[in-house]
Amino acid sequence: MWTGLYLGDCYRLFRRPRSLLAQVLNLGCAYYLAVMLWKVVMVTTNCESPVFIVQSGGDLRLHRGDIFFLTGSDSFRAGDEVVYQVPGRDVLVAHRVANVHEEPDGTLALLTKGDDNVVNDRGLYPQGQLFLTRPEIVGRVSAYLPYLGILILMLNDYLYLKYWLFFSMVFACLAGRGSWKRFFALSLADCVAHGF
Fold first, then answer.
1. Residue 70 CB burial class (10 angstroms; 0-12, 13-18, ≥19)
2. CA separation, residue 121 to residues 3, 49, 66, 167 (Å)
3. CB 58 within 8 A of CB 50
4. H and E: helices and strands count for the chain
5. How far is 5 from 45, CA to CA, in rounded Å?
6. What is the pLDDT of residues 88-111, one digit of tens each?
C-alpha cells in the first residue's frame, strides 16, 4: 500500500518533466541559499571555519557534541579559548591560551594549555616548535552550545543514517505536494493504532 503511494508519486513526477524541473530548480536554490548564508557567516566572523564541534571531551568542561562558535581575531589574551590546528595533523584542538608573546614587529606567539592538563601543549606542537603562530589559530571561541552537535557526529559516525536522511529529504522536496504526506499520516495512524 505505502509502496504504491511512493511509486505513484514517482510516476507522476516523471510524467510531468516541467514539474520535475521546477522541483529540481527549487532544491538547487535552497542548496545555494544555504551556501550563501554560510559564506556570509564566514565573512562576518572573519573566520574560515566559524563552527567547531567537539569530537572527544578531553577536559571535564568539554563534552562530545558541544558546538563552539568561532571568530577570527588578531589579539589574544591569556585565558582566551582558541581552536588551533598544527601542521601535519588533521585534528583541531580547543584549549586556553596560557601565555601571549608579541614581538616588536607584530609577530604573535601563543602557548596553549588544556584546563585539566598539568603541562602546556608543547608536546602537541611539531618537533622544535615552542609556540603557535597566527596561521595555526583557526579562531577564538565566542560562544558555545552544549551537546547540540551530537546529531551531526551521529550522522558522521553512521553513514547509512546520513544517506537515508539525505535521500528522504531530496525525495520529499522533489515529490512536492504528492501523496507522501498521506504516507506519513497513514504511518502515524498505524503506529498509534498498534501502540508504536
1. buried
2. 57, 22, 21, 43
3. no
4. 5, 6
5. 46
6. 888 889 999 999 988 888 788 999
Q: Which three cell numbers stand for residue 118?
A: 598539568
> What is the value of pTM for the model shown?
0.72
Closest by CA position to 131, among listed 119, 140, 122, 139: 122
Place of cell 503506529: 191
* Enclosing H/E stretch for 100: strand 93-102
Structural domains of the chain in order of their starting residue, each with its CATH number: 51-148 (2.10.109.10)
Amino acid in the structure at residue 163? Y
Whether the per-residue pLDDT at 35 is higher than 60: the answer is yes
Number of Cβ within a 10 Å radius of residue 149: 21
- Contact 121/113 with Cβ under 8 angstroms? yes
Question: Per-residue confidence at 12, pLDDT binned at 50, 70, 90?
Answer: confident
81 φ/ψ angles, rounded to the nearest 5 degrees: -85, 125
Q: Cα–chain-centroid distance for residue 88?
A: 22
